[in-house]
Design goal:
This is Translocation and assembly module subunit TamA. This protein has helices at 45-55, 66-72, 76-85, 164-171, 183-199, 247-250, 264-276, and strands at 3-5, 37-41, 93-107, 115-119, 132-142, 148-157, 206-215, 220-228, 234-240, 280-287, 296-305, 309-318, 322-331, 340-347, 351-361, 369-380, 384-398, 404-418, 421-439, 448-458, 468-481, 484-497, 539-552, 555-567, 575-586, 589-598, 605-610. By secondary structure, it is mainly β.
């Protein structure tokens, strides 16, 4: 086997001028230090890349002296050999030469401290840009035959021999017969088996055989890995450190029980559950020393509580409600059982409210809760003026397939004025609602959906002035299309009752506004009385199709079409609008600016709104 390392003497040295002062002035271009380059002739790109990584010439400047270069390249043969052997080339030969070549500096406008070096021929330069010289290393490579895997014996023995955790992995190993031997894949296979075992509770697992046998003359390799899983461990006792909350509450956040098979991912899930509870600022979980006789692993949980009270304040605006201010107070730890309460308030020219909500955590406190709430709301639109008082109890729980179910009983008393007719209604309404949403990115989803549906009713004489039944369904879907997003939205509402005039304003259906038929004012569409005043309807049907495309950074342009209305009977008046808008993914959430043009009445409406897409 022949290896040669040859230097060609040169007559002069050159250096590249460096203007450090230009680093202070971004508008003035400058030259930055240039580095030696490497050319490799021969071998596959994978091998060339590995050789470059092993040699790493990024610190050899063009003005490096020949003596220093010789010193810097000492040991290059061993590095090249290691790079080749790692990919199964054991019979390679090579020559590494160096020479001085002419280069032309290139100005990089965006970074005055960077430059690129372009190798040119030794001919005169075609322009007046000052040229210099730099080191070029040439590697002439003959890799020879690549060693292939001719024997592969990877097995798991012991209690985990038939565990799908191992059998599924062994069925799809990253190495196979007749593959070129790669030392890093051999090592990563060992590491993966061992890591899987540790994560699944096979804490005593170890390799009883681990060999990589290479026959250089026959260009063949044998991989022998035999892993003894040992006996799997289970979760032992969980000890919670000092806390202001009862241990019985903390235990309801544990996603496993003592005696369950040990899995490290469940420890991470436990930590995430406790953090998501919003009681704690930090959570640390330590594993106790495994018990070799009992084959159990105990856990010690240490928590640090957040402050008891939290206040929020904000300002915002939309064309539906106008400018608004809000304030909230939350007590996240009323008692050791983890009860919380929240006071929320909002004021705007159209919608103002004040509410109090008390929450008790359920058996699965992250998803199940019992809420008691009361509040008052004042709403004044172009079509109605109402003040409502409510008291409500709701049981919220997570159902199959991630559907959130809400069972509620709501008492409502509402004073309202519609089309110069004033009335008061009292209702006791049981109800049930389901909701679910999925998104690949909550900030700017390119694919996702949301479904909200609810059914409520009241019975005259049971704390109610009238009997009614009402159902609502609202959906939204987002799909990727042509590099942008297609957003579709639909809504349906149905009401059955005897006397529509007794239905309070908050339960009547209207259309128009930021999230309805743009091109019309907020809740200005619906059935009208004899004088032309909008009084709302029993039913609602709306839909929308929108396309937006990001044009620069966090800004996107959108085009849309909306249609729908509120109605009482089959005599349905269809209102349509179309327009365009600008979207800004601001730090506080998406901001939407729309210009909508009614297709029936002419003119246009400006709309400003904020809030997540799903």
């Amino acid at each position: 086997m022949h290896r040669a390392f040859i230097f060609k003497p040169t007559s002069r040295q050159a250096s590249i001028p460096i203007t450090l002062l230009c680093a202070l002035l971004w508008t003035i271009p400058s030259w930055a230090a240039a580095f030696a380059s490497l050319e490799i002739d021969g071998g596959k790109s994978e091998l060339q890349t590995n050789i470059r990584a092993h040699l790493d010439l990024s610190d050899i400047l063009c003005d490096t002296t020949e003596l220093r270069l010789r010193s810097r390249l000492r040991g290059s043969d061993d590095k090249i050999s290691d790079a080749m052997r790692a990919l199964g080339y054991y019979h390679g030969t090579w020559e590494l030469r160096r020479e001085r070549v002419t280069y032309k500096p290139t100005i990089l406008k965006n970074n005055p401290l960077s430059s690129t070096v372009k190798k040119l021929s030794n001919k005169a330069q075609p322009n007046n840009t000052e040229a210099g010289e730099c080191w070029l290393l040439k590697l002439n490579l003959t890799p020879g035959p690549q060693t292939l895997i001719t024997k592969l014996d990877v097995n798991v023995v012991g209690a985990g021999a038939n565990d799908p955790l191992f059998t599924q992995y062994l069925a799809k190993l990253p190495i196979a017969i007749n593959d070129p031997i790669q030392h890093d894949l051999y090592e990563s296979t060992k590491k993966s088996i061992h890591q899987r075992a540790r994560n699944a509770g096979y804490i005593d697992g170890k390799f009883v055989e681990h060999r990589l046998e290479v026959d250089i003359d026959k260009h063949s390799a044998a991989v022998i890995l035999v892993f003894d899983s040992g006996t799997p461990y289970t979760f032992g006792k969980i000890n919670f450190g000092p806390s202001l909350l009862n241990t019985s509450l903390l235990e309801r956040y544990v996603p496993f029980e003592s005696g369950d098979a040990f899995e490290s991912t469940k420890i991470v899930q436990l930590q995430n559950n406790l953090i998501s509870s919003n009681y704690f600022s930090s959570v640390s979980i330590d594993q106790d020393n495994p018990g070799p006789e009992t084959h159990t692993v105990g856990l010690s949980v240490t928590t640090a509580e957040k402050r008891k009270y939290e206040t929020t304040a904000g300002i915002g605006a939309s064309t539906d409600t106008g400018p608004r201010v809000s304030y909230g107070l939350r007590n996240r730890r009323v008692n050791a059982d983890g009860d919380t309460y929240q006071i929320a308030s909002q004021y705007s020219p159209v919608l103002s409210n004040l509410s109090f909500q008390y929450t008790l955590p359920g058996d699965k406190p992250l998803t199940d809760k019992l809420q008691w709430a009361t509040g008052v709301e004042r709403k004044k639109t172009d079509t109605s003026d109402s003040t409502s008082y409510r008291a409500e109890v709701a049981l919220i729980s997570l159902q199959n397939h991630n559907w959130i179910q809400t069972l509620s009983l709501k008492f409502l008393r509402e004073d309202y004025d519609i089309a110069d007719v004033s009335n008061t209604s009292t209702l006791l309404m049981p109800g049930i609602a389901w909701s679910r949403s999925e998104a690949n990115d909550r900030r700017y989803p390119s694919r996702g959906w949301r479904i909200n549906t609810a059914v409520r009713g009241a019975l005259e004489g049971v704390a109610s002035d009238l009997s009614l039944a009402q159902a609502e369904l609202d959906t939204k879907w987002i799909f990727p299309l042509w590099g942008g997003r297609l957003i579709s939205r639909g809504g349906l509402g149905i009401t059955t009752l005897d006397d529509f005039s007794e239905l309070p304003a908050s339960l009547r259906f209207f259309a128009g506004g930021d999230n309805s038929v743009r091109g019309y004012g907020y809740e200005t569409l619906g059935p009208e009385d004899a004088t032309g005043e909008v009084v709302g309807g029993k039913h609602r049907l709306t839909g929308s199709v929108e396309y937006d495309y990001r044009v620069w950074g966090d800004f996107a342009l959108a085009g849309f079409y909306d249609a729908g209305n509120a109605f009482d009977t089959s005599d349905f008046t269809f209102y349509e609008s179309a327009g365009f808008g600008l979207r800004w993914l601001s730090p506080i959430g998406p901001v939407r600016v729309d210009f909508a043009f009614p297709l029936k009445d002419g003119g246009f409406h400006f709309h400003l709104s904020m809030g997540p897409d799903l």
